[in-house]
Write a structure and sequence with these properties.
Elements lengths: L6 E5 L4 H12 L3 E6 L14 E4 L5 H11 L3 E4 L13 H21 L4 E5 L23 H20 L3 E6 L2 E2 L12 H10 L4 E4 L5 E2 L2 E2 L4 H6 L8 E4 L5 E2 H12 L8 E4 L6
Helix pairs in contact: 2-3, 3-4, 5-7
């Protein structure tokens, strides 16, 4: 393999998107540096062949040291605690992890002349806006998680205007795939249900289950995000599937698959809760 001279830093490299993107970039001949605190990802997800560093993005001094030593050319910033429904109850942690940690990364990108940062925001920035969501809509986030993501988007725009930092933003939608964390109780509905099935519990749905989601296979995100290294500076992209399923339909699919593993869960409806 011929290695590119470019070095790419990936935050959140032990998570679903980060671990897949690391493999994609390694296969393309890039040198990859990975950062993760392993709060939502797992060390076994990190591919061989990268320089991995365990640490917290909220630690400004530590982040500064990584950039000073490794001097990345590009940054993919995936690290976040994406528990949207939980975020109103963990406000301090949400903003420290998702906003202040991002600011530390952005600052070092500016100071170290990084060619570009690609940031994964969230569809949560739209709140209960007009469907279908379009990139030129004014975001109206309705929970602290969405607010923190939108704040980072605005900070990137300001950093570009004042310091010339190149950036692109991706708002992915319900990404699923191999190496997804199924042990987190507060995020990724399919992961939550898989864990319940494996533990012999029922599949639980808040409300009537008619709410719709479009789930996006991780393998279809990699090539588009790879193109952002050299294209579409200052632009924002929604990315995801256009095939919708009700949660009732998804639960029935999982129930059917579970029988192949000698599991027979029931579907249980709970009281509806506030959700975007």
């Amino acid at each position: 393999m011929t290695f590119s001279k470019d070095k790419i830093l990936i935050t959140g490299v032990a998570g679903l998107i980060g671990s897949h993107m690391a493999r994609y970039l390694l296969a393309g001949g890039y040198r990859v540096i990975g950062i993760d605190n392993l709060s939502g990802g797992y060390l076994e997800n990190v591919p061989d062949g990268i320089d991995f560093y365990l640490g917290e993005l909220e630690d400004k001094k530590w982040v500064k040291g990584i950039f000073k030593r490794k001097k990345p050319d590009y940054v993919y910033h995936f690290a976040a605690y994406a528990a949207e429904g939980l975020s109103p109850f963990i406000r301090n942690f949400n903003y420290s992890n998702n906003l202040l940690g991002s600011v530390n990364v952005i600052n070092e990108c500016i100071k170290n002349d990084v060619k570009k940062i690609i940031f994964t925001s969230s569809m949560a920035v739209y709140g209960n806006g007009q469907l279908p969501f379009k990139e030129d809509q004014r975001p109206t986030p309705e929970d602290p998680y969405g607010i923190s993501k939108y704040a980072v988007e605005m900070d990137l725009e300001q950093a570009s205007k004042q310091f010339g930092l190149n950036y692109s933003i991706v708002r992915p939608h319900n990404v699923i795939g191999i190496r997804q964390n199924i042990w987190d109780k507060y995020r990724n509905v399919i992961g939550i249900w898989i864990r319940k099935v494996l533990n012999g519990e029922n599949i639980t749905i808040f409300g009537d289950g008619k709410q719709k989601r479009a789930f996006s296979n991780i393998k279809f995100l990699l090539e588009p995000m790879g193109r952002l290294l050299d294209e579409y500076n200052g632009q924002i992209f929604n990315i995801g599937s256009d095939k919708e399923y009700t949660l009732n339909e998804v639960a029935e699919i999982l129930k059917e698959v579970a029988t192949d593993f000698d599991c027979s869960p029931s579907i249980e409806h709970l009281e509806a809760r506030h959700e975007v």
